[in-house]
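Provenance

Sequences were taken from public entries as deposited. Structures were produced by running a predictor on each sequence independently, with no templates supplied. The record for Glycosyltransferase 61 catalytic domain-containing protein from Eragrostis curvula is shown for reference.
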Amino acid sequence: MPQRGETSMKQCRSEVKPGRRRWRHRKAGFAAGGVLVVVLTYLLVSQQLAARARYVIITKAQWTTDEQLIRAPGATAEKEGTVSCSSEGYFSESCEVDGDVRVNGRVLTVTVVGPTNGSDPVEWRIRPYAQKYVGEVRKATVTLVPGAPAAACTVAHTVPAVLFAIGGHSGRNFFHDYSDVLVPLFAASRRYGGEVQFLISNVAWPQWLDKYHHLLRRLSRYPAVDLDADDAPVRCFPHVTVGLHIHKLLTVVPESAPGGDGRCLTTADFTKFQREAYALPRNATRRRGRRGRRGCWFVNVEEVARAAEAAGFEAVVTDLWAWGESDVAGKARTVNSFDAMLGVHGAGLTNAMFLPPGAVNIQVVPYGRMEAIARSEYGDPMTDMGLKYLEYVIDLQESTLLETLGPDHQAIRDPEAVHRSGWDQVSEFYLKKQDVRVNITRFAPTLAQAFHHLRQQLQ
Ligand SMILES: *[C@@H]1O[C@H](CO)[C@@H](O)[C@H](O)[C@H]1NC(C)=O
Ligand SMILES: *[C@@H]1O[C@H](CO)[C@@H](O)[C@H](O)[C@H]1NC(C)=O
Ligand SMILES: *[C@@H]1O[C@H](CO)[C@@H](O)[C@H](O)[C@H]1NC(C)=O
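Predicted structure for Glycosyltransferase 61 catalytic domain-containing protein:
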């Protein structure tokens, strides 16, 4: 009897070990080398807050406990249609539909003929966006019908399809573009080596497809079908994956990501894929010198930059958000030319995935018990990407909240209570209203550690 995620779980061997050790034997000097991008993303954070409430309170426990298998009873025969749905994890639900599968885009139905337990159809309602709580994304209906074949095919495809929605949080926020769509899509479709048809619903921002065409066209060699506007009433496929699945934020979990060659994919494979797609030249850290523009993000950004230079880096302060929404490739190439990135918790840190493996990512965690969120959104994924992740949790003295709210405010005295009252409060105080004035003395050891890490690799 096939088990949960059968199509994905057991078809690959996990080797895990990405990245880092590859560079150990590089010979290169590192005298004055290395560059630090100081990226601070506070001003941008507010854009993502409203939409983020649902998942931010997750804990590790939720990753592993909320596991459930929905399966059509008795669906075992090879030639007969099968539906295997999973709502594993906290975020997503998805179905693997196998057999003679028919898709109607306008009404968003996916139908396959196969044995059901009795004479009634079995139906699943799946939100094909990886964050299932995003209400604005229309649900798809997956139906296993007994007996008679469904309607004739208008277009008969010979390749499998992946059906997913864009919109939701994606398109509004760089982090969500990756965590909710691009990384899970890679995990779902890379195995096909381009021989896969993307069926996209909820195309709220058509420019999104242009923005990420470098990645999309490498995953699928066929133009994506906009299901909302699809004129073909019945598209037929041998297999359809309905919905994308986040197993862990911004991470490719090997057990659920077959590479198609017997090997499991890792997050490092995703970053490698990006380097290929954007023709990023650097797949390892090395000595560089470069000057860039200056902006102002941290309250004392100039001081932070000087501290970085004192630690041995050449520092460039830049606002990656200002790079223009559409030019992901240009931004990716710029980030790829650095050896380290430093930024306050926020979507801008997502750009660290363009760094070469072995590079350092320093996340500055704001005041207010934000460590767990910071780690699950960026810390853990960056480590999986083969980056050296360092974290600097600021002290109350380094937060502008102390001045703006005063020492007696609840947000200062009792962050736990603020967390208990909900995400709106957490975001209001700790993300929207807070700026960071880094205590250079306290921060210096973190910079030294970053520099030391890079130098070690290059010896
Ligand atoms: C089919 O449904 C009946 C009644 O709901 C149930 O008792 C039986 O276990 C089911 N059979 C399978 C194979 O799931
Ligand atoms: C890194 O890129 C160089 C030049 O393209 C290539 O020769 C080398 O094999 C690559 N190394 C890895 C580990 O991908
Ligand atoms: C900065 O950090 C150092 C070391 O932790 C500490 O001794 C000093 O008091 C801090 N300075 C301020 C202004 O908080």
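Residues 300-457 form one domain.
The longest strand covers residues 94-104.
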